Amino acid sequence: MTEWDIKKLRILRTLRDRGTVTATAEALLMTPSAVSQQLTNLARQLKVPLLEAQGRRVRLTDAAHLVLRHAEVVFAQLERADAELDDHLRGDAGQVRVAAFFTAVPALVVPAVQQLRGTHPGLDVRVREAEAAEAYELLTDGAVELALSLAAHAPPVRDPKFSRVPLLADPLDVALPAAHPLAGAPGLRLADLSAEPWIFGGSGPWSEITTAACEAAGFVPEQAHSAAGWTAILAMVEAGMGIALVPRMATAERRTGVVMRVLSADQPRRHVVAAVRRGAEEGPAVARVLAALRQAAAARETVR
Question: Which of 213, 198, 202 is closest to 271 using CA atoms?
């Protein structure tokens, strides 16, 4: 019978995801030579070639991809086993580490934690703020059990490593200076703002979201200023330096000199999702946190 080595299979999966032996070694805190040696041993154990040269790099063979398709089932089952074992040993006193992007922390994670303190006081939820892409890296590396991110920047739905749970379609409102001529205009549409100077980040998720929303409305936004934090963005809007799209989850950052307008008809939205390593969602502790996050998201939908 073929010998399947879980540790070596994880190295092979990391190579598939990271692309190079060097990046794989960095992710797993190994040396490149150790990675190569482990994969050579795995190929010998499975009696199939797993890697082939491609210039100065290596690529996975068809046999390697076949091996990983079956290995993903094993990894998911091990996640289920870990979750059940943790529940058996700790019951309601388990720990769930959560990585979430900036606006999701106060809007979703904090209300979920507050609810769980009342219903499951022994459950220890540890929160870590992280950018959308970083949250998935932390999840992949085992540094957290649950990641909150944006669907546009999450791994594909078919990625076998993760289970994704849709939480919220967060509307994007437009922030205008209080004295702006369109601050009180009825039926405001995004296209009405095509000639305005815009404020958004120079790169990253929010830059892409703003650009995509404006392009969908038929124009390319003129970026007058670049900022990543909502405090800075809204301060510039208040000063009349430009306008900005703002997620409704960030309403705690509102300023008195800024008018938030709900866009008519073509209102863009960003989709917030939670993700866990496949199989872990069946663990009671993670399931409780996911349920609390769903309730927090539903409560936000109700008050709109």
Answer: 213
CB 124 within 8 A of CB 94: yes
* Cα 236 from Cα 281, distance rounded (Å): 42
Using CA of residue 180, residue 181, residue 186, residue 190, what is the dihedral sign? negative
Residue 242, SS3?
A: coil
Of 71-75, 84-88, 231-235, 276-280, the least confident: 84-88
- Give the pLDDT confidence score for residue 228 in this predicted structure: 80
> pLDDT per residue over 45-99, tens digit each?
888 899 988 877 889 999 988 888 888 888 878 877 777 676 656 666 678 999 9
List the one residue out of 203, 130, 139 whose CA is nearest residue 165.
139
Please report the sign of the dihedral spanned by the C-alpha atoms of residue 38, residue 39, residue 42, residue 47. Answer: negative
pTM of the model: 0.71
Whether 300 contacts 96, CB under 8 Å: no
In degrees and rounded to multiples of 5, residue 200 shows phi and psi of: -160, 170
Provide φ and ψ at 122, rounded to 5°.
Answer: -85, -10
